[in-house]
Amino acid sequence: MQMGGVAADSLEVLAWTEALESVNDWEDYKAIFPESPESDGAGWALGLAKSFFEVRKSLQENGLMVGEAARRVRVLEQDRWEQLARLEREVENHLESWGCESKSARLAAGDFE
Asked: Which residue in 17, 60, 62, 111 is deepest, having the highest Cβ count within 10 Å?
């Protein structure tokens, strides 16, 4: 887990899974999910978590988090990016409660070590 350090990739995927499974009202995320993903059966959250983790990994190359990317591409699918940024904040909250932070947060803060 790396207390006080950067979260391992597997822990970050777990945080995404927890954030997705904790959504009570999918209407709040309608731009990303026109239909509730829970209807996809067992394991739905893990597959999505891995996909969202890969999105953040791609953004890391530019030192960006989803929230900053959302601000930069306001005119392109603004609702989707804002909703994804809201999920990202939940992920960061989970990681913080576990005593670590994401590599994305570190890079976005300019901490490249």
From this structure: 17
